[in-house]
Sequence to fold (421 residues):
Amino acid sequence: MENNRIDLLIHNIGTLITMQGTQEPRRGGEMSEVAAVRRGAVAVRDGIIVAVGSEEEVLAQIGERPVTHKHDAEGKLVTPGLIDPHTHLVHGGSRENELALKLKGASYLEILAQGGGILSTVRSTRQASEEELYVKAKRSLDTMLSYGVTTAEAKSGYGLTLEDELKQLRVTRKLNQDHPVDLVSTFMGAHMVPEEYKGRSQEFVQLLIEEMLPEVKRQGLAEFCDVFCEHGVFSVEESEQILLAAKALGFGLKIHADEIEPMGGAQLAGKMGCISAEHLIAASDEGLEAMQRAGVIAVCLPATSFNLRLKHHARARTMIEMGLPVALSTDYNPGSSPTESMQLVMTLGCLNLGMTPEEVLTAVTINAAHAIGKADTIGSLEAGKQADLVIFNAENLAYLPYHFGINHVHSVFKQGKMVVS
Ligand code: NIG
Ligand code: FE
Fold:
């Protein structure tokens, strides 16, 4: 009988949103198909969901099996744990000094061209010890978790020397081991051409291709490789060279594409078969079509366009109408998006991208899971997947983005363990 035991039964869920459905990322109308179960329950064993649905169904399924712990959800809203598929989690310092410059009208690329922006965070990150980076990133990860995030992606890219990139990536690996939030690691040595390579970008590209990518691979420190394809950063040709080398080594591919200027990054994402392309604020119709044909997931970052005070946001409505799967993310970083709050991103997804609450939830759960290659284990509540879920102080989904700027989390379960209460 003991082997039969249910570790956890969460019952009396007022509104249960499971996000069950297709194995593929959700596109078009599928992004709105968000069924809610009234008076639901979830049964968990060894961190994995064994039954989920209405209380009646779940109780019938578990039958006489003994239950170790029962948790009353008090009639609240339950969703899958939120997934943040694009963050620059590990970095030194902060850049509140840029706020005054921004208010005086300086643009992101102007601040960068003057040696600020990413380059100032590169200086702080190089100076920081591994321990300092760990302590700072852990604080952010605690905040993410308290706002309902159970898995996040984390990029390097503020070291820009082999040693400093490895330092960032080791911090991600250690946090992944120590912290309840699972981390998916991305190598982003192609985040910027460092000052010591100014005017010699091709040499830096060679360093990335010949030394950094192979060493990161050898040490197994990242699953994905990302490139910042933008004017004054990496050209489309350079981005392609880097992504080709990464692909040959077996990395999954991501790209920061068409954030500020329509460079053709979205087309490149399609051509290279990237798993996702991020930002896309200035992406052209042709770029989006290339992504659609190749099945690239569009990761939109509405907190970034909000914080950069851009006049335009990513065209999420067009993307959804074209049949592109859309995911949403914080882009948490010290410059363009200093926030860990996926709940704020959900509000901005509605108000600035015109997405419905149902589309937004799809974008921060199952589509976000696909964007980091983890949809087989997370992103929806179904038998066989991890019991990563959030209980919100809300009665329905729309309340989350509607009542904005506060934290609605009541409690968080990661692999069946209560990690926020
Ligand atoms: O995704 N666009 C490039 N990288 C980050 C910003 C990094 C920074 O400003 O420090 C982004 O917006
Ligand atoms: Fe980013």
